[in-house]
Amino acid sequence: MPAPLFLSGSCKICGLQTTGRHFGVMSCRSCAAFFRRAAGSEKRKIECPIGNCEIFGGGRFQCKRCRLKKCYEAGMDVKKFQNNRDLISCSSNFSKRQNFIASSPQSLSNFLGRPSFILCCEPDKATFSNTVIDVTYLVNKTNWIFHQPPSINCRPYRYQNSLEKLAFSLDELRTKHPDQKIMQLRRMGKEESMYILEQSFLRAVEWFSNFSEFQELEDYIKLEIIKTAWFGWIRLEKLSETADYQRKQIFPEDVHMLGNDTCLEYGNFEIDLSWCTDYSMEQLMFYIPPQEEQNCRQCVQDLIDLSLTNIEVNFMLLQVSLSQAGKRCQGKVLEACEKLMQTQADHLHDYYVNKMKQHNYSGRLTKMLKVIRQLEEDIRNRTELNKLARVFNVIRLEFSHPEMFDVH
Hints:
- By secondary structure, the protein is mainly α.
- The protein is built from 13 helices and eleven strands.
- The protein is elongated and about 105 Å long.
């Protein structure tokens, strides 16, 4: 470690004790602050009529003009001013907040371009060209998959229960193509969105097809469950996969899984929504709230801290997807979902007590359910935003099966 630096001597401007080098000259703090104020002023400089006044005398500084002149003569340089060093005013969050406050509020009238008195009334001449997405082929493929034998039935392994079988099924899905590299997306447009949508939905379908008790349900109940449960399932599945990669230090903290073989880095990708809206990204910020990214990061961190086993991950997937499907569909679907969740809760209890030898697992289960509740809250918020977007024609999208995309 180098020896400490001791500064001594007198200020080159006023002769008082120096405090260090300021703007290129050994000076006191008072002269440094004076030069920062005076040299940065845009007022017209007036020469001192005497021209050689004493800088410091009688306990006070005498002539400002001569003092500034001596600062320049000593070598002080305005190019060495460092602006925006205030920790509050220069922070990006503070700047963004100030810009937001300074700008005029974006009312619905301004946003939609219609006066407030006809805000909820569409003019007769107004026409909207929606992008129609036909997903009938996905529904048909789902019916076909559900009528096929489970993909892991041929494995020479004896499963203790359906929860253990689902855990093995998820591992199979994640390692189906071990040589396939994960591609980082730099742009999200229509083509990328449709590709990931199809991948995600069919992945959830294949996982549910290996769920023994689920396959015993009537066909229409199975279809209703998968159409309403897939989004919550894929959301948690991708978050848990991201947490697994980050825990193993394969991904940095800003990279998240998106599809089966794709990922994205927050702050390093472009979103193109021109195919489904007439509004700019700045106008759509209400539709993509900043806390959504923050919630995803927090959820991933919670999953990393929990370091879940495969059984626990699959129990959480069942909990979030079946709970969502039951609440939305009600009736026989709700009854079936509650029965399935109770069965899997019994399997989880058996896993903790008999396999993990952990009789007191309530604390861990509480943390798992906390992650699920946060995810369910995010899904509810997304549903409300989608309703607003449809009412005011913000998003020009129309699906052949709209019940599948209420929260997408």
